[in-house]
Each structure stands twice: as C-alpha cells, then as structure tokens.
Design brief:
It comes from Corallococcus llansteffanensis. The chain is an alpha/beta fold. The protein folds into two domains: 275 residues, no CATH class; 61 residues, no CATH class. The strands form two sheets. Strands 1, 4, 5, 7, 8, 10, 12, 14, 16, 18 and 20 form an eleven-stranded mixed beta sheet that branches. A ten-stranded mixed beta sheet has the order 3-2-6-9-11-13-15-17-19-21, covered by helices on one side. Helix 1 runs antiparallel to helix 2, helix 2 packs antiparallel against helix 7 and helix 8 packs across helix 9. The radius of gyration is 21 Å and the shape is globular. The relative contact order is 0.10. The C terminus is likely disordered.
Length: 442
C-alpha cells in the first residue's frame, strides 16, 4: 500500500469514527461502502488507462486534510461580494458551509435549497433514495472517496411544475491557511415533473496554498423537467480539482451542462449523462483555457439507453505556454435506442510550441436506425487571419487575442444573456493572452 493511499484511508476512517454517533444507519452504510471501494481501487496512477493523462502526484506530496472549522474572514467576505450572482446562494469555504454569507431568500414556491448537512437531518428519506444512485460507486476511486467523507454540500429540490427564473448559486471557495485542505462537496438535485431551474456551481481560490477539491454532483430530472447547469472553475495555481457530474433524465426532459475550466494546477471535469426516458434532449458544452504548466482534463460519457433522444456536445480548448489539455468523450447508443440523434465535436487551439492536447472522441453504436457524428481538430491561429488584422494596423498580440476570443466565443454565446454570461466573459478575458489574472480577494 502506498503512503498516499494510507494517508487517505486513515483520514476517512477517523472521519467515520467521529461522525458515526448521530448518523442514520443508511448514511453509515454509504460512507462505509465508499471507504471499502476506495481502498479496493486505490489511488490511480499513469498505468490506469482512464487516468494516464491526469497527473496526480500532488495527492501524495501534500498532506491534505478536511477543514475542521468554518472560516469567514474579511478576505472571504470580499470574494463573496465579487463572485456572487443575484439571487439565492450557498457559500462554502474549504468545504464548510458559511451561513452568514449565504442567501436563502427569493426562492419561488416549490424550490428548496439547503446545505447537505441540514438535509441529512431533515430529508433522510429522500436522500436515502437518491444519494449514490447515479455515481457508480466502486467504478471511480474519487467518487468513492467523496462518499467515504460525505458530510457537506447542497440539496436542491424542485416540486412538480416549480419554476425558478433566477439562477441558484453554489459558491465554493478554496482558501487553506492552516495547511493543505481537502473539500468533498456532494451536490444533489432532484427536479420534479415539469419543473425548470438554473444552477451555477462556482469554484474559486483564495491565496496560494495547495488545496484539493473532490466534488460530486448528482442530477435527477423528472419527466418534462429542465435544468441548465453551469460550472465555473477558477481555483488557484496550486489547486487540484476533481469534479464529477452525473445526470439521469426522464421522458421529454431537457438538460444542459456548460463547463468552464480556467483554474488549478490540475483540474479534471467529468460529465456522465444518461437518458432514462424517451424524447430527452441533452447538451454538453465545455471550454477549457490553460496557460503556464496547467493540466486541464475533460471527460464525457453520454449514454443513449432509450429510443428517440437527442444530444449535442461541443468542447473547445485553448492552451498556451506549456499547458496541457485532454478531451476524452464517449457516446454510447444501446441496442434498443433507435432514432437516436447525437453529435460530438471537439476543437482545440494551441497558442505556443510547448502546449499539448490529447483528444479522443468515441462513438459506440449498437442500434441501426440512428443519426450520429463526431469529430475533433487541433490547430493554431490562422496565419491569413493574423495577416489580415495586422495589415490593418492591429499589433500582433492584440490580433492573437482577438482571434482567440473569437474561437472561444461560441461557448460563451451559448450562455443566455445575463449575469452568468457576464461572469463567464469576465473569467475568460482574464485568461486570454495579455489578460490580467483575476483576483478574487477584493
């Protein structure tokens, strides 16, 4: 057993011992199963095919531990003021809920938002039915570790036909300050029949200390429900971020995922989407922008398990300096999923000789009456376009920035006009060549 694995096993066992007194039996069982599966899987290495492109040395080189106390100093208050969107929000610092900076007013009838620690006490029957149902416990080491340390996060429930026009925000700040900190948020979304909402997960960093965020989001959409999900990830230069989004769609439901990955030394975002009812629509969009020595890993798995569903997938990467990115996307069309309409596109822009990208789109089709397509491209800025702009008096750095922004704008424009798009534009502008790194400490 490696020293790194032993460290996390010891941490999880100590947590479960401390937290077992008041936990209901089903929660003790879920945590114990997570620990057992994590111990069996171990920490992935480059020899594991699913993890060969994701460098995880920081897991063993830093003694990450969960934060014990809630911190809400002036730096946190300033960051919340800067990063908050209009509307209800829950704020977490190093994985701990901060009530004083959260806002739970303005929720429409039928929409309930609460921290997971509270929901575990008040909504045990619902969570017992839903927690872990989409995450394939045992198939993923870090999802299992999240379950072993399950304590905090958020629960969003939508009653049948409930409508939330204002985005709901979950703001996760990675601060550290007392040593390398591990945060393990679990977000659960249960949308009833005919309901509609927008959820924004924001992950930002404070300070320069090494932090580790291991986040899991589970989404269950009832028939004819609709959810727009946005993930804005801009953690610090020493941060490790591993995130998994797992969705299950009922009949005629609509799910949109927009993932924007800009921060972290190493950041891996996974989306696992599955159709469970006919007539569903799914959109998976992603933009990752890296510079320096960042490594940004993106993986999608879209499961067409039933007939007459459609999916559209577009991921783009922009990499500068010695940054490295990956896109591994898979669409599975099962034998009975006739009339499937699916497309997957990945495009990558390399701005320097040292930047690298690994792209692997996949289609697995077992049905015969389908319409499916996929493709990937890797390239550099167009010389003719650069010449055209420079011939009109635009300096080369500004011309490169304009063309890069135009390349990325397709994903930005896919976000409806409003505060979410404005925030994405702000974050993107700070990451483009010549941009100023975004400071969130006020």
């Amino acid at each position: 057993m490696s020293a790194g694995l032993a460290q996390y096993l010891e941490m999880a066992r100590a947590f479960q011992t401390r937290g077992s007194a008041n936990a209901p039996p089903w929660l003790k069982t879920l945590r114990a199963e997570g620990l057992r599966h994590f111990e069996a899987a171990g920490l992935p290495t480059s020899k594991d095919e699913e993890w060969k492109y994701t460098p995880l040395a920081a897991l063993s080189s830093h003694p990450f531990q969960p934060a014990r106390d809630v911190y809400a100093g002036e730096d946190v208050a300033a960051a919340v003021a800067r990063l908050s969107l209009p509307g209800p929000r829950l704020v977490f610092v190093d994985g701990r809920f901060v009530p004083a900076l959260s806002v739970l007013t303005g929720l429409p009838r039928g929409v309930v938002l609460k921290p997971l620690s509270q929901a575990l006490r008040e909504d045990g029957e619902l969570l017992e039915r839903t927690l872990g149902q989409r995450t394939r416990l045992g198939a993923h080491a870090f999802t299992s570790l999240n379950a072993a340390l399950l304590e905090e996060g958020a629960l969003l429930t939508l009653a049948p036909r409930a409508l939330s026009e204002v985005p709901v925000q979950l703001l996760f700040l990675a601060r550290g300050g007392s040593g390398p900190v591990l945060a393990s948020p679990r977000i659960v979304v249960v949308a009833g029949e005919g309901s509609e909402a927008t959820l924004v997960e924001t992950y930002a960093g404070l300070g320069t200390e090494a932090t580790f965020t291991n986040a899991v989001t589970e989404v269950s959409l009832g028939d004819n429900a609709s959810l727009h999900h946005y993930k804005l990830q801009t953690e610090g230069d020493a941060a490790l971020h591993l995130g998994g989004l797992y969705s299950r769609q009922g009949r005629d439901s609509r799910f949109q995922s927009h993932a924007f990955s800009f921060g972290g030394a190493v950041a891996r975002n996974e989306v696992h989407a599955a159709f469970a009812g006919e007539g569903g629509e799914c959109v998976l969009n992603g933009l990752f922008v890296g510079r320096g020595t960042q490594h940004l890993d993106n993986r999608t798995d879209l499961d067409h398990a039933v007939p007459r569903c459609s999916s559209r997938e577009l991921y783009k990467g922009v990499l500068d300096d010695r940054a490295r990115g990956t896109f591994h996307g898979r669409i599975r069309v099962r034998e009975d999923a006739q009339k499937t309409d699916a497309s997957q596109t990945n495009r990558n822009l390399l701005l320097s000789e040292g930047a690298q990208v690994d792209a692997r789109p996949q289609l697995e089709i077992l049905a015969d009456d389908v319409k499916c397509a996929h493709g990937t491209a890797v390239g550099r800025l167009d010389d003719n376009a650069l010449f055209y702009l420079r011939s009109r008096g635009i300096p080369r750095p500004e011309a490169e920035r304009m063309l890069t922004q135009a390349f990325a704008s397709e994903l930005v424009l896919a976000v409806p006009q409003g505060p979410v798009r404005a925030r994405v534009e702000e974050l993107l502008s700070a990451k483009l060549p010549g941009g100023t790194r975004l400071e969130v400490t006020g």
